[in-house]
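Input record, target 12 of the design panel.
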């Protein structure tokens, strides 16, 4: 072989090797990209960002955090009517209402919990621990039975929620936390108008009868129920019109970004009214709101400290109730 040819061959081999390395690194780069955050979480730099779940290690503490996240995403698989650990809840998942495992901006996320609990809450009239707050959602939102506070499941959910809020400071205002408030309408929300919104924009997933669709394994929902015996009960936060309207406006139909909602405010209030006009499990609320004057104006059950009807407290118009409260 002459010398020049040998050099050319070596150069070609080298170039091929570099090209091959480039391709491999590109492919593995794609593979190791972490699961994309929802569009809403990246849009606003000032808004809260959940820490990266890939940073959690496999120590005992890390495994507890990961189990907590798993329980929040797949609650029914572990704790539902056919759960593998216990049978405590109605078949819904925490994530049905706390979207993306409690990390989605304006998706009822958990960003504020670590920085605000223990916290005084008027509903119970007491200072509540995270355990108490989680069990509140167990009893009301999941229409179930509380978890033992020493159980691995409770400790895991608490560990995950604290881990999520590790970067938030006590007393600081967190942008994108919880549920976004909608301005009040100057009329009562209208269940009949809401039924039309429902047929048009919700029924394809949640079904005409509001019962959602179970996964093929029958253990959890693909599309959760919005009313009826498998839904959240009448003591749940989401049964208050302002809560469900704010949740729906910025998160439904599923997949919308809170930056670009599809529903108008009126549609959100009306469809919320339609959902809340349907039957759901009851709950004994006689011990709630011991300081009556602190009851939210959209709480659908009396007694109240004003003279507005239960119906107006449920559907509005809310502005006159708010004005009367401000005058007190
Ligand atoms: C049917 C919907 C729904 C389900 C299911 C649900 N929650 Fe909630 N949760 C809510 C609502 C509504 C609130 C109150 C939000 C508000 O008023 O801003 C809330 C509040 C909370 C809070 C307090 C948040 C804060 O910032 O103060 C925690 C913690 C919580 N839920 C945990 C859970 C856990 C854990 C589960 C599952 C075991 C669960 N929730 C299931 C609707 C739900
Ligand atoms: C493309 C399917 C789809 C459509 C359309 C849709 N949803 Fe949902 N909805 C979901 C899914 C999926 C969840 C649970 C999200 C999760 O677990 O991550 C959900 C959760 C909810 C929840 C909280 C959980 C519960 O069961 O109470 C409410 C309330 C809700 N949707 C209302 C609505 C309303 C109102 C509309 C119409 C404006 C609507 N949805 C349209 C798929 C949909």
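The sequence produced for target 12 reads:
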């Amino acid at each position: 072989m002459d010398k020049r040819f040998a050099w050319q061959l070596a150069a070609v081999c080298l170039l091929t090797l570099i090209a091959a390395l480039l391709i491999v690194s590109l492919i593995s780069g794609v593979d190791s990209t972490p699961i994309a955050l929802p569009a809403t979480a990246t849009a606003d730099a000032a808004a809260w960002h959940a820490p990266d779940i890939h940073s959690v290690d496999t120590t005992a503490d890390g495994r507890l955090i990961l189990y907590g996240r798993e329980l929040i995403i797949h609650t029914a698989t572990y704790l539902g009517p056919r759960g593998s650990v216990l049978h405590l809840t109605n078949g819904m998942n925490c994530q049905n209402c706390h979207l993306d495992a409690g990390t989605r901006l304006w998706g009822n996320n958990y960003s504020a919990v670590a920085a605000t609990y223990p916290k005084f809450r008027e509903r119970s009239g007491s200072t509540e621990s995270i355990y108490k707050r989680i069990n509140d959602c167990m009893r009301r939102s999941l229409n179930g039975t509380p978890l033992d506070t020493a159980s691995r499941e409770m400790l895991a959910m608490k560990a995950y929620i604290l881990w999520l809020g590790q970067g938030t400071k006590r007393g600081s205002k967190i942008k994108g936390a919880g549920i976004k408030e909608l301005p009040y309408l100057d009329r009562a929300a209208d269940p009949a108008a809401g039924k039309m919104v429902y047929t048009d924009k919700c029924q394809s997933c949640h079904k005409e009868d509001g019962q959602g669709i179970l996964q093929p394994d029958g253990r959890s929902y693909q599309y959760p129920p919005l009313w009826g015996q498998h839904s959240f009960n009448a003591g749940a936060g989401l049964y208050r019109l302002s809560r469900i309207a704010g949740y729906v406006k910025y998160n439904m139909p599923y997949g919308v970004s809170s930056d670009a909602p599809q529903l108008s405010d009126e549609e959100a209030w009306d469809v919320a009214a339609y959902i809340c006009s349907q039957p759901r499990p009851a709950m004994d609320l006689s011990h709630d709101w011991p300081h009556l004057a602190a009851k939210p104006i959209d709480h659908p059950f009396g007694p109240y400290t004003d003279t507005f009807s239960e119906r107006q407290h449920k559907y509005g118009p809310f502005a006159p109730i708010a004005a009367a409260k401000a005058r007190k």
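Residues 53-164 form a domain with the Cytochrome Bc1 Complex; Chain D, domain 2 fold (CATH 1.10.760.10).
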